[in-house]
């Protein structure tokens, strides 16, 4: 965006004092905790990334969250405003004064962002992924990989399956993927985020892998990416991923849902989708192995 | 199955502002509808027509048929030969009309045509002839697959463009355009007017016939699509269309064997008459709209036409019935010393262009036109955008560059006009109200509002009881 | 004696439309008889002659013609100045080219909004059908807050919606919650396992807020309108809503909140519910049936969640029962209904504008001796004024009246919080409660005021703060309407109106 366009936008933007926002499930606790100063990590037209220090079990750690406009990608660490970036200038907003998070609001100088409602960011699926859908998604992803590199892609299911079974394998995979690649969310992290969120939704046991990934992530990957991995481990992800998960378990065309994931970021979408696909493949094998999916606490009441 | 619970909501709200505000306060995007009550007394009819189980499918079919039409210019033929018109029979613009109700320009045009056909020696003598009704008859162009601009008078010796849809073989026709100023269609009948008409019948018509026949079918739909990209809207501005037509036909005119001087005169006449192509846009529009006629349950307007006294519309679901009201006087700019008091009420079949999504509906493609009413280019944008409110579809070939090549608003829906109170906007020329004067100005006009509730009532009585 | 001025300006081109506008403007000036400012085309030269001007000798198509007939020299000079000014004038931009006018119909709005949008209609009932049909025909679910939509239109609307696989919430749907978004009058609640299908607005709000108090969230609340379970409408929306909730992986238990439907419709809906994978629990309100609080407790049991002690504020020991009449002043229709059902078991006849028995109907004056309950939100009392959940004035006046009535033994009120409701109802009600109790005291009576407060903790008004304000004014406040009513009844000796 040119400077003059920014200036023009600024002139037209009259920010109200109170801005309602939808609050991702995984950020609600942070919003309602005691107020503390937040630091700006990065500012973009549709997203501002911020961090606060919090103590988890005695150890201080960085927690990242995002202030997003309505047209931004809905990160599971987001406070999502009801207005698009065409009607609000986030950089002006966050530069209006000290930024304080907590006590039910995010205060930005004279402006207050309030948590008006809770956004569902936890993935929910109904049943196991279907073989045909997994195969279709896999074929489409391989076609993209071939088109990009001319080479067949990694055998992600083969790489990740052992990581669910043993601690050493989990650590090995983490060393291989965490922080691998450029950007705020390296591609290796995106693969893991897609895998973790889908595996959690499909009720695979991800405890060992998640421990290894989060351990490895400290200091080795950007704070935002580490935060998104934590959310993924809690089963929290993007709405596009939710739609893909839903379609993987239903006899519906997979193309639109997969394309929506592929459109995320520059290359993040492909990495996320590959991780989701790998988890679906493993979940399908596990279900076939058991003949039936273990009922989860959330669907156990159903007389299926 | 609804996917309501799968997406984070966005809201479209109409009604009490408080509820929209309450949703906004929850960080949910809200689009607010600027709703207003429908035209008075129409609630029952609206509900019944909207509840009609045939409506949605009928309108979809009407649109499908319209968009499938291609209009090819296939021939140029005298009206007598083409329509079996005998001397004494005259076609005119608009809904049916009797001489005693005819306005000045309509009378002038008929009188001129009577003289042209040799029924009287001088046009002035024709007044008695028409008043007596002996040996003369008046019928709407629309009843003969024809359209005519302004008075729209067609008599046997006038040459007609013939348009055909190759897929269905359906045909429409329209007379040749005489140019601006003192012309028959504006009610002028001075000797030079008749002289020009005789030249058109004796020279221009045959020359065009030879050229078109030699050229083969000429795709008028394609030219219309292009002219919209070149600042024409197909009703009050046809400059680009005219020149593209001339470009297409010129080689065949030259090789027709006609005398070079004759070809030069014809080429100069066509090139110097910015409205020449109007008489091809109009029958192309009629060909499109005729395809959508007579679909039970359809609320689509298939014709808007004025005879200088009354404005009439026809609707697909109500067959050939006309719904009429008093024609309005256009608002606009006047030539020379003329003023509003000199202008005749709205006249002509040319509103067929708006009915098919051109003219006033495509105003955003021709910003120069809006200044006829003292507006700005932004008014032109707004005019087209307003017409989307009352139409069913966006045209798949006719697009508006400034609106990011959005299709022009196509298919006026009676129910939407009644619901919004937004009347179709028509670009038009204005005829002097005294017979023989000719054009006095140009401007914008709308149909009388009453025709839409009347059409709605007829649609309602044809719909199953709710 | 007038002056004719004819001038030819070479090389001064302007487009014909501009020139028409200049001619018109100059021609209208005081003291100007005629004006023509035009390019010297053949047509325009003819026009000039027709206007009686002497044509210029040398003029061609690229020359500008200025012809003015003025009554005197001053008028001519003024006209020439105006001509010069008008020829150089440029219109000022009045709006931005990006501005798009607001859509006038739901159909038009639908074209500009992406998928997944829900249409919320609160137009006058006689007009709402067309907009609602627009919504479902453009593939959108619709909530119709409006009442007074003719029954035949409701049936047809729901038929069209079924063809398009869409849900119609309403007409007369006051409350919905979709993906955590409250629509109409709705409380702010967290996502959770309970899905609600509601034919009643404030009844559904009571269920929402009690679940919230129990720490249990809601996946969605889908209103269906008060008539959906009638024989004519045949539960069309109820069935669609049940299917939507059944397909929602978040929903573990479905509650249907309604007055008892027609028997054959109830049977059909139950039969449909039995085909779903998600358990469905019916909370049908009426005499001899469990109240809403009991229905919520049953739902909590079914989910394996603990039933909490329902919150209350300022409730002390119950004093000895005294004679007097119960006066219930409600803003929520279903809450009023529930109150009458519970109270009439102990007290017998309760007069009302929405009576349980026809012979218990109140006259239009809304005055009668004995126990009575008024629903201030009833259609007949809201014609031409906002709902009492927004505008408390009507009820406040009645509270003052009851305070001076020696027969009034207990005042029972509801306060409904949430989106779209009054932003601080306690601030209006507390002074009225305080004043009412003082008025009663002045006549030597103690007037207990019992309030059922329907609100969730996250509601914009803040339930605790509202409750504390009311408690401080001397009211006893209950989160459960049923408990509030039972408490109010316990303050009176049965049948003991004087």
Q: Helices, strands, pairings?
A:
The complex is a heterotrimer of chains A (304), B (466) and C (498).
Chain A: H1 3-12, E1 18-24, H2 28-32, E2 36-37, E3 39-43, E4 47-56, E5 59-68, E6 78-81, H3 90-94, E7 99-102, E8 105-108, E9 111-119, H4 131-149, H5 156-160, H6 167-177, H7 187-201, H8 207-217, H9 223-233, H10 239-248, H11 255-262, H12 268-290
Parallel strand pairs in A: 1-9, 5-6
Antiparallel strand pairs in A: 1-6, 2-7, 3-4, 4-5, 7-8, 8-9
Chain B: E1 10-15, H1 17-24, E2 30-32, H2 43-51, H3 55-68, E3 72-78, H4 79-83, E4 89-92, H5 104-116, H6 126-132, E5 137-140, E6 146-147, E7 159-164, E8 171-175, H7 191-215, E9 218-219, H8 220-227, H9 239-254, H10 260-271, H11 278-290, E10 301-307, E11 310-315, E12 323-326, E13 331-334, E14 347-348, H12 352-355, H13 367-370, H14 377-387, E15 391-400, E16 406-412, H15 414-420, E17 426-431, E18 439-445, H16 451-462
Parallel strand pairs in B: 1-2, 4-5, 6-8
Antiparallel strand pairs in B: 3-7, 3-9, 7-8, 10-11, 10-14, 11-12, 13-18, 15-16, 17-18
Helix pairs in contact in B: 2-16, 3-11, 5-7, 7-9, 8-9, 9-10, 15-16
Chain C: E1 3-10, H1 16-27, E2 32-39, H2 42-50, E3 63-70, H3 73-88, H4 106-112, E4 117-122, H5 128-137, E5 142-144, H6 151-163, E6 168-169, E7 175-178, E8 181-184, E9 194-198, H7 201-213, E10 218-223, H8 236-247, E11 253-258, H9 263-274, E12 280-284, H10 292-303, E13 312-313, E14 325-330, H11 333-347, E15 351-352, E16 372-375, H12 393-404, E17 408-416, H13 425-442, E18 449-454, H14 463-472, E19 476-478, H15 481-490
Parallel strand pairs in C: 4-5, 5-6, 9-10, 9-11, 11-12, 14-16, 14-17, 15-16, 17-18, 18-19
Antiparallel strand pairs in C: 1-3, 2-3, 7-8, 7-10, 13-19
Helix pairs in contact in C: 1-3, 5-6, 7-10, 11-15, 12-13, 13-14
Pfam families (chain B): AllG (PF06545)
Organism (chain B): Pseudonocardia bannensis
Protein name (chain B): DUF1116 domain-containing protein
Helix count, DSSP H or I runs of 4 or more residues of chain A: 12
Question: What level of helicity do the residues of chain C show?
Answer: 25-40%
Quick one: which chains have the greatest interface?
Answer: B-C, 64 and 90 residues
Q: In angstroms, what is the radius of gyration of chain C?
A: 35 Å
Enumerate the strands of the largest sheet of chain C in spatial order, edge to edge or round the barrel: 13-19-18-17-14-16-15
Distance between the termini of chain C: 100 Å
Order of H and E elements of chain A: HEHEEEEEHEEEHHHHHHHHH
Name of the level-1 CATH class of the largest domain in chain C: Alpha Beta
Approximate strand percentage of chain C: 15-25%
Helix content of chain A: 40-55%
User: Domains counted in the coordinates of chain C: how many?
Assistant: 3
Unreliable spans of chain A: 1-13, 292-304
Protein name (chain B): DUF1116 domain-containing protein
Pfam families (chain B): AllG
InterPro entries (chain B): AllG-like, OXTCase_su_AllG_h-dom
Organism (chain A): Pseudonocardia bannensis
């Amino acid at each position: 965006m040119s400077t003059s366009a920014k200036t023009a936008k600024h002139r037209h933007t009259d920010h109200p004092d109170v801005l309602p926002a939808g609050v991702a499930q995984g950020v609600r606790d942070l919003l309602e905790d005691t107020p503390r100063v937040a630091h700006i990590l990065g500012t973009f037209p549709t997203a501002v990334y911020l961090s606060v220090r919090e103590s988890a079990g005695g150890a201080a750690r960085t927690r990242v969250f995002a202030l997003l406009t309505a047209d931004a990608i809905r990160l599971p660490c987001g406070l999502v405003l009801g207005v698009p970036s065409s009607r609000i200038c986030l950089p002006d907003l966050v530069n209006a004064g000290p930024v304080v998070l907590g006590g039910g609001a995010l205060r930005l100088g004279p402006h207050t962002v309030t948590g008006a409602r809770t956004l569902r960011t936890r993935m929910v699926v109904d049943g196991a992924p279907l073989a045909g859908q997994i195969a279709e998604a896999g074929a489409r992803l391989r076609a993209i990989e071939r088109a990009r590199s001319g080479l067949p892609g990694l055998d992600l299911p083969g790489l990740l399956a052992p990581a669910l079974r043993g601690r050493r394998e989990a650590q090995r995979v983490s060393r291989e993927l965490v922080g691998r690649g450029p950007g705020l969310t390296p591609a290796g992290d995106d693969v893991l985020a897609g895998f973790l969120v889908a595996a959690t939704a499909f009720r695979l046991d991800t405890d060992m892998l998640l421990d290894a990934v989060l351990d490895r992530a400290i200091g080795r990957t950007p704070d935002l990416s580490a935060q998104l991995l934590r959310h993924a481990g809690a089963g929290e992800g993007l709405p596009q991923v939710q739609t893909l998960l839903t379609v993987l378990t239903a006899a519906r065309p997979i193309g639109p849902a997969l394309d929506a994931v592929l459109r995320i970021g520059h290359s993040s979408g492909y990495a996320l989708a590959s991780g989701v696909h790998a988890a679906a493949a493993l979940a399908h094998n596990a279900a076939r192995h058991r003949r039936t999916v273990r009922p989860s606490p959330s669907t156990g009441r159903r007389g299926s | 199955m609804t996917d309501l619970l799968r997406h984070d909501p966005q809201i479209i709200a109409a009604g009490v502002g408080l509820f929209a505000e309450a949703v906004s306060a929850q960080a949910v995007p809200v689009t607010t509808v600027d709703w207003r009550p429908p035209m008075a007394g129409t609630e029952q009819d609206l509900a019944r027509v909207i509840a009609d189980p045939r409506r949605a499918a009928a309108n979809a079919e009407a649109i499908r048929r319209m968009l499938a039409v291609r209009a090819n210019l296939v021939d140029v033929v005298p009206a007598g030969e083409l329509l079996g018109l005998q001397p004494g029979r005259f076609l005119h613009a608009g809904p049916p009309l009797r001489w005693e109700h005819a306005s000045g320009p309509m009378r002038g045009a008929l009188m001129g045509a009577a003289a042209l056909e040799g029924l009287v020696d001088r046009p002035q003598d024709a007044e008695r002839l028409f008043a007596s009704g002996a040996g003369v008859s008046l019928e709407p162009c629309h009843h003969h697959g024809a359209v005519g601009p302004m008075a729209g008078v067609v008599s046997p010796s006038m040459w007609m463009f013939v348009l055909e849809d190759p897929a269905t073989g359906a045909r429409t026709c329209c007379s040749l355009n005489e140019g601006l100023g003192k012309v028959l269609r504006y009610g002028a009948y001075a000797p030079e007017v008749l002289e020009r008409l005789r030249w058109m019948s004796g020279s221009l018509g045959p020359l065009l016939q030879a050229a078109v026949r030699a050229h083969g079918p000429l795709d008028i739909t394609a030219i219309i699509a292009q002219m919209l990209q070149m600042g024409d809207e197909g009703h009050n501005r046809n400059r680009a269309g005219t020149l593209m037509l001339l470009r297409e036909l010129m080689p065949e005119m030259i090789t027709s064997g006609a005398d070079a001087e004759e070809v030069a005169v014809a080429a100069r006449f066509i090139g110097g008459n910015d409205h020449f192509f109007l008489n091809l846009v109009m029958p192309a529009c009629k060909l499109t709209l005729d395809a959508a006629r007579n679909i039970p349950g359809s609320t689509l307007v298939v014709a808007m036409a004025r005879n200088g006294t009354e404005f009439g519309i026809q609707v697909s679901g109500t067959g050939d019935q006309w719904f009429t009201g008093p024609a309005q006087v256009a608002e606009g700019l006047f030539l020379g010393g003329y003023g509003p008091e000199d202008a005749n009420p709205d006249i002509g079949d040319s509103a067929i262009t708006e009915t098919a999504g051109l003219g006033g509906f495509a105003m955003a493609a021709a910003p120069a036109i809006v200044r006829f009413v003292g507006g700005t280019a932004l008014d032109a944008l707004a005019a087209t955008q307003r017409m989307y409110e009352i139409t069913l579809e966006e045209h798949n070939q006719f697009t508006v560059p400034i609106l990011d090549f959005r299709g022009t608003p196509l298919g006026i829906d009676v129910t939407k006009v009644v619901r919004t109170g937004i009347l179709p906007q028509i670009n038009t020329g204005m005829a002097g109200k005294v017979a023989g004067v000719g054009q006095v100005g140009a401007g914008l006009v709308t149909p009388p509002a009453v025709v839409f509730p009347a059409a709605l009532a007829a649609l309602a009585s044809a719909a199953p009881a709710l | 004696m007038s002056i004719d001025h004819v001038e030819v300006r070479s090389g001064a081109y302007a487009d014909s439309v501009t020139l028409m506008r200049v001619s018109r403007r100059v021609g209208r000036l005081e003291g100007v008889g005629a004006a023509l400012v035009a390019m010297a085309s053949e047509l325009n030269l003819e026009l000039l002659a027709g206007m009686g001007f002497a044509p210029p000798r040398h003029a061609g198509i690229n020359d500008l013609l200025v012809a003015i007939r003025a009554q005197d020299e001053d008028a001519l000079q003024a006209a020439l100045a105006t001509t010069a000014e008008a020829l150089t004038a440029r219109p000022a931009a009045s709006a931005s080219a990006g501005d798009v006018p607001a859509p006038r119909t739901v159909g038009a709005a639908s074209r500009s909004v992406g998928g997944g949008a829900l249409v919320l209609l609160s137009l006058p009932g006689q007009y709402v059908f067309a907009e609602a049909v627009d919504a479902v025909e453009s593939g959108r679910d619709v909530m119709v807050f409006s009442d007074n939509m003719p029954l035949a239109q409701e049936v047809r609307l729901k038929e069209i919606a079924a063809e398009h696989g869409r849900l119609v919430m309403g007409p007369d749907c006051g409350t919905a919650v979709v993906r955590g978004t409250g629509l109409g009058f709705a409380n702010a609640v967290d996502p959770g396992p309970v899905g609600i299908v509601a034919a009643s607005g404030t009844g559904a709000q009571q269920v929402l807020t009690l679940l919230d108090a129990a720490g249990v969230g809601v996946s969605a609340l889908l209103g269906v309108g008060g008539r959906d379970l009638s024989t004519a409408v045949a539960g069309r929306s109820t069935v669609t809503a049940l299917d939507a909730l059944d397909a929602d992986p978040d929903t573990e238990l479905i509650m249907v909140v309604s007055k008892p439907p027609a028997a054959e419709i109830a049977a059909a809906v139950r039969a449909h519910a039995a085909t779903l994978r998600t358990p469905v629990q019916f909370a049908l309100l009426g005499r001899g049936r469990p109240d809403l609080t009991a229905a919520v407790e049953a739902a909590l049991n079914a989910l394996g969640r603990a039933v909490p002690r329902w919150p209350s504020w300022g409730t002390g020991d119950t004093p000895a029962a005294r004679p007097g009449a119960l006066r219930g002043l409600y803003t929520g229709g279903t809450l009023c209904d529930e109150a009458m059902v519970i109270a009439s078991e102990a007290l017998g006849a309760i007069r009302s504008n929405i009576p349980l028995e026809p012979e218990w109907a109140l006259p239009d004056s809304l005055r009668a001796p004995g126990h009575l309950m008024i629903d201030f939100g009833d259609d007949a009392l809201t014609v031409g004024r906002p709902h009492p959940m927004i505008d408390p004035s009507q009820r406040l006046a009645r509270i003052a009246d009851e305070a001076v009535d020696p027969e009034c033994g207990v005042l029972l009120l509801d306060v409904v919080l949430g989106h779209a409701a009054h932003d601080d109802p306690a601030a209006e009600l507390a002074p009225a409660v305080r004043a009412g109790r003082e008025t009663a005291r002045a006549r030597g009576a103690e007037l207990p005021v019992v309030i059922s407060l329907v609100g969730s903790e996250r509601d914009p008004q803040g339930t605790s703060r509202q409750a504390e304000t009311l408690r401080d004014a001397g009211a006893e406040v209950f989160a459960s309407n049923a408990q509030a009513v039972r408490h109010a009844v316990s303050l009176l000796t049965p049948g003991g109106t004087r």
